Amino acid sequence: MDNKDTISVLNDLIETSKDGEKGFRECAEDLKNPQLKTTMNQRAQDCATASAELQQLVRTLGGDPETSTSTAGDMHRRWVDLKTKVTGKDDESILNECERGEDVALKSYRKALEKDLPMDVRSVVERQMQGVQRNHDEVKALRDAERARS
């Protein structure tokens, strides 16, 4: 895989990370439970850190790093906004959408790891994917706990 292809894969993951950051921040704004708000803001910061790390890798490879969210992520957030206006914004529903966002992120990371990435890049992507999996599992557990309270 040449640098151009590697940069393209990394830029896709930067968009994914930016989507996660924005999605978690929006979830935090809408959640009623203060503890859940704090957790979602922490996950947003984790995504921002991952994005910055990927951007640095792109620069190291001589590329221009992506700086914005993806169109698909923007469309999903608009859909969630519309849906919650119609159905309401209870914490369980918000956590459902957070989990759905993490499903998309996992898919993006798995797709990236199917590529023939340089070893140093692959190790960063693998480590970050473990973080995405932890985020997904934590959001799912929080959602299940919220569902049990309902």
TrEMBL record:
SUPFAM superfamilies: Ferritin-like (SSF47240)
UniProt cross-references to Pfam families, sorted A to Z: DUF2383 (PF09537)
The DUF2383 domain, residue ranges: 5-115
Amino acid composition bias (Basic and acidic residues), ranges on this chain: 134-150
InterPro entries, A to Z: CHP02284, DUF2383, Ferritin-like, Ferritin-like_SF, UCP029477
Annotated stretches, region: Disordered: 131-150
NCBIfam families in the cross-refs: PA2169 family four-helix-bundle protein
Protein name in UniProt: PA2169 family four-helix-bundle protein
Originating organism: Stutzerimonas zhaodongensis
